[in-house]
Design brief:
Order of helices and strands of chain B: HHH
Strand order of the largest sheet of chain A: 2-1-12-11-13-14-15-16
Helix content of chain A: 10-25%
Structural class of chain A: alpha/beta
Structural class of chain B: mainly alpha
Number of helices of chain B: 3
CATH superfamily of the largest domain in chain A: ANL, N-terminal domain
Helix content of chain B: 40-55%
CATH topology of the largest domain in chain A: Rossmann fold
CATH topology of chain B: Non-ribosomal Peptide Synthetase Peptidyl Carrier Protein, Chain A
Number of strands of chain A: 28
Shape of chain A: globular
Distance between the termini of chain A: 41 Å
Strand content of chain A: 25-35%
Number of strands of chain B: 0
Number of domains of chain B: 1
Number of helices of chain A: 10
CATH architecture of chain B: Orthogonal Bundle
CATH class of the largest domain in chain A: Alpha Beta
Oligomer: heterodimer
Shape of chain B: globular
CATH architecture of the largest domain in chain A: 3-Layer(aba) Sandwich
Radius of gyration of chain A: 23 Å
Chain lengths: 450, 81
Amino acid sequence: MRGGAASGRMLHAAHASFDLGSLERGSCLDGRLAELRGRSVVLAVADQALAALALIELDGVARRIVLCPADVPPEHLPHVIATAEADAVVGDDAAALPSPPAVALFVARPPAAAATGIERQPQYVTEWILLTSGTTGVPKLVVHSLESLTRPIASSPARGPLPLWSTFYDIRRYGGLQVFLRAMLGGGSLVLSSPGEAVGAYLERAAAHGATHILGTPTHWRSALMSPSVRKIRPRYVRLSGEIADQVILDHLRDCYPDAGLVHAFASTEAGVAFEVADGKSGFPAELAGARAADVDIKVAHGSLHLRSARTASRYLGADAEPLRDADGFVDTGDMVEQHGERCYFVGRRGGVINVGGQKIHPEEVEAVINSHPHVRLSLVRGRKSPITGALVIADVVLSSAAAGDARALEHEIKEHCRARLPRHKVPAAINFVPALAVSASGKLERRNA
Amino acid sequence: MTVRTHVLAEFQKVAQEQGKKLAPLSDSLVLLESGLDSLCFAIIVARLEDRLGVDPFNASTQTDFPVTLGDFIRFYENAAR
């Protein structure tokens, strides 16, 4: 997978730096790589640097690798293991891993020289499986390959000094993985963020290592702009993806880094990178829709962006999984687009999916939790625009006739009910009590795009 | 209530709701060192928009994003004028 010589190229994590050359003499898999040959491997390592090293070792050796980001709740792992038909799990701590029968456990450790020689002849076209959010909160497994993942990456290396890549993202998510692969294939080094690391601390580290090419969501960048450390980094290339990049954030970044290339990319786990916009304006040129840009067919159908290219995933894993592409090979992104003059703009997601800081939330999952509160009859969860995180979760709630008492106390009680059952970003930031909710002729709640 | 008291009240309320330990509030406090994260700030900004009727983050790009609590309060005071 690596482009150019490995030695001297670094992976910088918060706690340590690793020389990629160390993998030529050692292994982060306890020298047990041979045992993983041909297996379906769930890579559930919290540490990003170890996960990165394990990915490099496993590509071509494992039949399938499932990339679990650090924030996947442990209770979802058994579902992931079963759906991926995994027969091996790599983690940080064997005791903390689920161990269904016939699943072998492996522990990733900082590379050590292996006792026996390491045979790393690639034998498999490894499937790379990424996780994405499903309507019930249980992750869906999306099948990519190194080929589909690296299609968006220019084959000719950039001129000038080698880039030093960095990303606020977890590299186990699509956007972060693009940066990891660009660093590995383009011959550069990489500064990794650390789960839970403060934005200021990450920026200081990126600055200390001299990061030149940095990717984040608009939410990451807004947060960076509120840090005194934001002017310590001197990026040559600033990239945004994962959420709608509005004009305000683009203008602020242009002011802060006047000499940097400023690019916002449209990408999703299923559809891959569709296109990049480099003119510093939000939205994208209308002429892209209906055209073939690079190797991507782009069309807008029923208001939603559809993409067809060799960059898209091939399918979802699972016996009863829905098709990922339509009969013509297009992936429906569910991202709704409106044209104003010569420009198209993203206006939200179909089905009311809410994007809070790059994390997609299906309203149905939150509604199910709210509706399980004894005083709630019905609820509608929707997004409210936020200049900080792109959107926030808001709930309209119809109370049952038995509900009585102080509305504020009840609002607090329902929020606590959600907090006990949902990750923080899915808990409604505000609850409005309403007398009724609109229901369509087909008996479904009427959702408007946020 | 002044803009300042509204802002301070929301910082305290949101910190409590989100289970975050809030640093002692002073004008020189760096926002990202206050103990609050992006989600907390998003909620504060939404509530201040409801209370004060302004959202300076979405308005002009003439001024920089606030870095300290003092910047943040002035950001709203100027917008509310």
